[in-house]
């Protein structure tokens, strides 16, 4: 086991280096993007590998390239590659999203070939996928490869010494002109002739109209390119606005919309389409006092605008349906809390406001607004002193339970006349106990800086992004930094953004789009005539510094290869030792259990282990997998939208028994469309989903009750989520077989591991809690002396869901001690307290002897 631990440490270290060198798990840091149907024909992208000539080959040759698609585009149709043979015959790879299956098709001349396939949407949209086309003169055939799939087209009448035009995207070549193109990205185009690399276009440029070929200096020509490397380094300006009023800005992270609140209208910027729209207020003109701010509440999905005086606090809610504010403000003095920071907490449904500046005083006030009761409360924080400040940056964890505040400008007294200065401390505020803790202080550089209003927090990597700027000059610039939440280190990434800073006339903020994988920077500048100039800039994630991004990307590949090798070795060793110890294989789920079937559980587990229950099966733990009545894996046929439609109806059907209404489906999936458009989209995709479910026996989509529901006969269709519910819902029936069965289900991986939807969060959270509670409930029925080995195994199951679970740690330590393995028990506890401190930033309050004597709570 010590050897395995060393393996995993090596893996984590190498992956850490890979992340440092290239913070992009899919390596999408270079390549060329193609403008597609979102722009007019003249602005779409073309790549000609051999302008002014053709490429000729005497021997077999193969062209390969990496392909990926952009998410959230309206149209997915067109030519990926067109190969023209001797100006006579075209060989095309075309993508058609409207096809029921096999969206990729190889076309020769004007005929479809048998080469038709799909790429899993998760891979197509999030990873690079290698495709290749080989011209095999020796056997007069074309061989097409996609991943591990191979297609052969015979009797092609290929001619040696034929010459080819190789075109990607749109083209204007003779009679082979095309204007249809899917929203795609390409990189690493290579041609191998007679077994040797002949041409290589990596597409790693940052600008220009040339695709440099690095082997034979045969450069390609590009029209309207989107160089991906540049999009990770250079902020791209969007169309700006000038609007009436002392405007403020807010962000909806789910819909990826930036809202700008003006005095007579609200303006919306859609991140994935770079499109502006505006809506006039039905409630009339809104008085926006100086210093107002806005915030989007992701939990009730409403916009709020507020401004504060010392003795008065005003807040209004905007109804996105009626386009009206629920109250009108009175014209008042300027705010006492300019450039304050804000955060929303889901645990107590509250808005928290920190610091600010007004009337020559810097504030360290913490104010809480309760959305449910519409009341305000001043908080008196505990522990470390929060120095009065403004121009700080705030970021919060996903649920808003932990807040980080970095930097700012102010002083300990709060009085502006008493030598204010820039500050660089990182403060952590915990909502549960209302305490501040100083984490560290950044090292001061040669130039002072303040912060834009928000930090982007990544809790998984304990890191943050923020925008800094020198506040002592008007013609300033914003610079993105990437830093650690655990230590005072940061680095500059991306280029700078122009920012006119005029203190209370200016405002800057930073947002992150998780789906589109891009940062958004917003700057506001108010004129003396109460007009606000709005500028928006975007940057692809991960952002790069000023060095060579391409070399960093390629360097990380080797690290990933080494990590994968070590991971396979470690996993093999772990499984081998685990099976030697327990003599039981890793199992997958079985059908729903009732009392009469309980005795059949071991047989069902064996059946799943042998793979005989893959027919008519739906697996939701780990990666989604759907097997039809013949045992074929049809998961790849679920497009991203149909997959989400399938999952939301399935889960509501199984858990609640009735499914969802059409209105609820529209709210979840087509919230951005009017009623007619949403109805049309729903009808089309429901039909596609029905067609897929028809491939399973005893599983169908219905609306007999007025709700969309997936009807399943669990005697014939195996759904691991149903098995899970049957175990956790009746803890009185728990026994060793059911515990092993629950472990078999969850060992496939976390629930819908690679799927992130807002509506799914509650399911995932509930499953984690219920699984842990079920294990603990059964563990408390065991005797620590006689069932020590089993308790250790159950603790391992719990750690899979909660690595720092206090109850599981106590159970494991007690069990190890009862077996006489005192050093292992002590080692387990020491690892726990180290992880506890990393996660919570404080020491665990009991020592080893305390936990051995502690009685665990009954579940």
UniProtKB/TrEMBL annotation:
GO terms for molecular function: DNA binding. Gene3D superfamilies: Kelch-type beta propeller. InterPro entries: AfsR-DnrI-RedD_regulator, Gal_Oxase/kelch_b-propeller, Kelch-typ_b-propeller, Kelch_1. Keywords: Membrane, Transmembrane, Transmembrane helix. The chain crosses the membrane at residues 558-577. The keyword Secreted does not apply. GO terms for biological process: regulation of DNA-templated transcription. The keyword Iron does not apply. This is Galactose oxidase. It comes from Mucilaginibacter frigoritolerans.
């Amino acid at each position: 086991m010590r050897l395995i631990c060393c393996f995993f440490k090596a893996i984590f270290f190498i992956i850490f280096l890979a992340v440092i060198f290239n913070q992009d798990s899919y390596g999408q840091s270079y390549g060329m993007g193609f403008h597609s149907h979102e722009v007019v024909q003249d602005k779409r992208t073309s790549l000609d590998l051999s302008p002014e000539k053709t490429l000729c080959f005497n021997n077999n040759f193969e062209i390969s390239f990496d392909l990926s698609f952009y998410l959230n585009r309206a149209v997915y149709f067109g030519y990926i590659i067109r190969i023209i043979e001797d100006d006579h015959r075209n060989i095309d790879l075309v993508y058609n999203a409207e096809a029921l299956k096999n969206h990729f098709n190889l076309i020769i001349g004007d005929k479809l070939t048998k080469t038709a396939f799909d790429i899993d949407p998760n891979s197509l949209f999030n990873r690079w996928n290698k495709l290749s086309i080989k011209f095999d003169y020796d056997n007069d055939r074309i061989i097409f490869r996609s991943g591990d799939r191979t297609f052969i087209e015979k009797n092609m009448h290929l001619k040696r010494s034929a010459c080819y035009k190789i075109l990607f995207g749109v083209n204007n070549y003779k009679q082979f002109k095309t204007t249809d193109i899917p929203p795609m990205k390409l990189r690493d185009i290579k041609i191998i002739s007679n077994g040797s690399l002949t041409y290589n276009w990596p597409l790693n440029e940052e600008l220009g109209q040339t695709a440099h070929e690095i082997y034979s200096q045969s450069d390609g020509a590009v029209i309207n390119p989107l160089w991906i490397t540049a999009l990770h380094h250079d902020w791209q300006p969007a169309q700006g606005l000038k609007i009436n009023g002392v405007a403020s800005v807010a962000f909806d992270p789910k819909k990826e919309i930036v809202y700008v609140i003006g005095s007579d209208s609200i303006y919306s910027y859609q991140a994935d389409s770079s499109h502006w729209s505006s809506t006039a207020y039905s409630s009339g003109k809104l008085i926006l006092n100086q210093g107002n701010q806005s915030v989007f509440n992701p939990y009730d999905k409403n916009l709020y605008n507020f401004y504060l005086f010392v003795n008065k606090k005003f807040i209004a809610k905007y109804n996105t349906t009626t386009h009206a504010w629920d109250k009108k403000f009175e014209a008042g003095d300027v705010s006492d809390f300019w450039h304050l920071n804000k955060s929303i907490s889901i645990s107590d449904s509250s808005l928290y406001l920190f610091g600010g500046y007004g009337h020559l005083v810097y504030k360290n006030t913490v104010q809480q607004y309760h959305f449910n009761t519409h009341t305000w409360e001043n908080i008196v924080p505990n522990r470390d002193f929060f120095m009065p400040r403004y121009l700080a940056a705030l970021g919060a964890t996903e649920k808003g339970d932990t807040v980080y505040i970095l930097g700012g400008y102010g002083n300990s007294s709060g009085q502006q006349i008493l030598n204010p200065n820039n500050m660089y401390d990182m403060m952590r505020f915990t909502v549960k106990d209302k305490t501040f803790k100083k984490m560290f202080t950044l090292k001061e550089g040669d130039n002072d800086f303040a912060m834009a209003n928000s930090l982007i927090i990544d809790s998984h990597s304990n890191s943050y992004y923020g925008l800094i700027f020198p506040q002592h000059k008007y013609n300033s610039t914003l610079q993105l930094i990437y830093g650690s939440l655990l230590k005072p280190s940061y680095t500059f990434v991306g280029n700078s953004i122009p920012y006119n800073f005029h203190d209370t006339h200016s405002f800057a903020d930073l947002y992150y789009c998780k789906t589109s994988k891009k940062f958004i920077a917003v700057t506001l500048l108010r004129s003396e005539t109460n007009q606000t100039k709005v500028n928006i800039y975007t940057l692809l994630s991960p952002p790069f510094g000023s060095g060579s991004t391409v070399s960093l990307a390629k360097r990380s590949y080797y690290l990933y290869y080494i990590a994968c090798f070590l991971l396979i070795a470690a996993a093999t060793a772990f499984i081998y030792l685990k099976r030697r110890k327990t003599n039981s294989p890793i199992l997958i789920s079985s059908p729903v259990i009732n009392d009469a079937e309980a005795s059949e559980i071991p047989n069902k587990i064996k059946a799943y282990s042998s793979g005989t229950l893959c027919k008519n099966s739906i697996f939701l733990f780990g990666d989604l997998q759907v097997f039809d009545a013949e045992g074929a894996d049809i998961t790849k046929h679920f497009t991203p939208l149909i997959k989400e439609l399938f999952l939301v109806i399935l889960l509501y059907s199984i858990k609640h028994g009735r499914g969802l209404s059409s209105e609820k489906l529209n709210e979840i999936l087509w919230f951005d469309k009017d009623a007619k458009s949403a109805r049309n989209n729903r009808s089309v995709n429901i039909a596609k989903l029905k067609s897929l479910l028809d491939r399973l026996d005893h599983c169908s989509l219905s609306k007999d009750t007025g709700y969309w529901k997936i009807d399943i006969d669990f005697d014939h269709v195996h759904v691991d989520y149903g098995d899970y519910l049957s175990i956790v819902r009746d803890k009185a029936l728990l026994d060793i077989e059911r515990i092993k069965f629950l472990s078999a289900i969850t060992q496939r991986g976390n629930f819908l591991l690679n799927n992130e939807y807002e509506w799914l969060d509650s399911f995932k959270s509930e499953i984690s809690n219920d699984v842990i509670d079920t294990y603990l409930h059964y563990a408390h029925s065991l005797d620590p002396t006689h069932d020590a080995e089993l308790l250790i195994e159950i603790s391992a199951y719990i750690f899979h869901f909660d690595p720092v679970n206090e109850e599981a740690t106590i159970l494991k330590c007690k069990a190890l001690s009862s077996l006489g393995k005192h050093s292992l028990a002590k080692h387990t506890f020491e690892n726990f307290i180290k992880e506890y401190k990393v996660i919570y930033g404080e020491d665990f309050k009991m020592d080893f002897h305390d936990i051995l004597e502690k009685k665990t709570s009954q579940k």
